[in-house]
Design a protein that fits this description.
Blueprint (H helix, E strand, L loop, with lengths): L1 H5 L3 H35 L5 H47 L1 H6 L4 E4 L2 E2 L3 H7 L2 E5 L2 E5 L20
Antiparallel strand pairs: 1-2, 1-3, 3-4
Helix pairs in contact: 2-3
Length: 159
Amino acid sequence: QDLARALPHPDAILAERRQRLDHLGGRLPRALGANVQKKQLALSRFHLRPAALQREITVHRREVARLAGAAGTALIRRLGELRTRLDGLERMRRSLGYVDTLKRGFAVVHGAKGVVTSVAAARKAGALEIEFADGRFSTGTRAAPRKKPGAPDPQGSLF
């Protein structure tokens, strides 16, 4: 649980990038409009034929499309990098969590007052519940308390 709290939340990782994308997306139409007006003003000083103007417009449209495509590609690449990093953090979290440890043959011993970590505490508890990867097993004279229904999984999840 301590480890899970130390890991950043996936939404927190992506929130800043989403906000920046929204901000830049809002600025793009104004910037494009201002650029078009600037170019129109520059072209109005010259007496050009319609065909020449059409060629200039076509060139500028292609350039805008190329720049927009490059920005989208960079964003997609960055999101992929963040996803890879997040997947790595999730694998690390799982490998350090106790559920995977149980799968490797270990067990968690629970008593009336929580997890039992010593022989003395086990003798004092009287009843024990041993948690394995595939379930729990009770032993002793009185049943050890179970987790309350609906309690969150101590392993946690990023999704």
